[in-house]
Specification:
Structural class: mainly alpha
Helix content: 55-70%
Radius of gyration: 19 Å
Strand order of the largest sheet: 1-2
Number of helices: 5
Distance between the termini: 57 Å
Mean pLDDT: 80
Number of strands: 2
Number of domains: 2
Low-confidence stretches: none
Order of helices and strands: HHHHEEH
Strand content: 5-15%
Length: about 100
Amino acid sequence: MALKLLTEDVADVPVSLLEKAAKLWVRENRFMPKAAELIALAREAGSDTFRGTNAAVEQLEDHCARLNQLDWCRGQWRVVKTNEGHHTVERVTARAAVA
């Protein structure tokens, strides 16, 4: 039952990151982890994976490209860099397109 609950709690964590987290946990611990502990390790593994790369920005751009191919929102979405240096998806309005 504990294993079933654990798997339900970590179901939204990408499998590749969950696998890395589980391997890290097994190397350093001999007891069953809590979901929060595995999620924290997966988050660390994910940040190490994408740090210093443009993978996340490329994923956002791919997502915008898919949205922009739909008839109801053709050409309305783009990736922009915020003042804090992060990237986000923004809907292009008539005023934004002129600026």
